[in-house]
Amino acid sequence: MDLDVLNDRIDDKPLHEALSFLAETFPGQVVFSSAFGQEDQVITDAIFKNNLDIEIFTLDTGRLFKETCDLIDQTRSRYKKEIKVYYPNSEQVEELTTKKGMHSFYESIENRKECCYLRKVVPLQRALQGAKVWVTGLRAGQSDNRQSFDNLEWDEGNQVIKFNPILNWSFDEMIDYLKTNNVPYNKLHDQGFVSIGCAPCTRAIESNEDARAGRWWWETSKKECGLHQIKIKATA
User: Fold this and answer.
1) Which helix (H) or strand (E) element contains residue 151?
2) Using CA of residue 229, residue 230, residue 231, residue 234, what is the dihedral sign?
3) d(Cα 205, Cα 27) in Å, to the nearest integer?
4) Which one of 25, 110, 165, 205 has the fewest beta carbons within 10 angstroms of its own beta carbon?
5) What is the mean pLDDT of the chain?
6) DSSP conformation letters of 68-87
7) Could you confirm whether 225 is annotated as catalytic?
8) How buried is 234 (Cβ within 10 angstroms: 0-12 exposed, 13-18 middle, 19+ buried)?
């Protein structure tokens, strides 16, 4: 189905209706990647509460916060649903840490991107095998880089349709949804953490800082790990 036609069919639909339409259009081929941030928990609630045929998976890098791991179990318990977990290739991580140590990502942007690639991008490629649609929790308000994204895109690198259903939601809309629906969230958010990734690479931010300032805070890069920087074309 042409992306423009598909976009017309889901444009302006409520979150759960748009997700439901895609699940019915691509049965068994829609997946949602969750990092268990607040955005992701909104989408998880919509999928699980409405029993949609969408697999939810997460990438366990081996360096997650305890609070994130706790939330994974809390979410499974709340909805009584499975969440698939993908891990990095152990031999690749062993080689990296043997050659460069446990914290090589602090030494250069190249080293950090190498670590992200092995711990996130490679497992993601496995998770997306056989999928037609990849749902994400991206919001334009998270960073300048993400303001150029579209709700529906063609991900050339992964050969999937990428759907960002809450891309244009405001921070307040997201928080209101979580509160109204009593959705569990990462307790680190109450401690000044806005964007939460791996423990060695994430810190709390001050009130005057950008939402992504706590990610790889020692860098002046665009604050991306590589999952959402693959070249995107307008049509499938």
Assistant:
1) none
2) negative
3) 41
4) 110
5) 91
6) HHHHHHHHHHHHT---EEE-
7) yes
8) exposed
In a domain, 51, yes or no: yes
What are the distances in angstroms from CA 138 to CA 36, 74, 133? 12, 22, 15
Q: Look at residue 226 and tell me whether its pLDDT is greater than 90.
A: no
Determine the residue type at 51. Answer: N
Amino acid residing at 168: N
Tens of pLDDT along 150-209?
889 999 999 999 999 999 999 999 999 999 999 999 999 999 999 899 999 999 999 888
Whether residue 79 is contained in a domain is answered as: yes
d(CA 22, CA 132): 10
What total number of domains does the chain contain?
Answer: 1
CA angle 56, 61, 63 (to 5 degrees): 125
- Residue of 115, 116, 198, 225 with catalytic role: 225
* pLDDT of the residue at 165: 96
Assigned token pair, 102: 């446990």
Q: Return the structure tokens found at 153.
A: 């895109």
Which residue range(s) make up the domain with 94? 3-231
3-class SS of residue 222: coil
Does residue 116 lie within any of the structural domains?
yes
Distance spanning both ends of the chain, measured CA to CA: 8
Domain containing 212 — which CATH number?
A: 3.40.50.620
Q: In what order do the strands lie in the sheet with 84-86?
A: 84-86, 55-59, 30-33, 133-135, 160-163, 152-155, 232-233
Residue 150 lies in a domain: yes
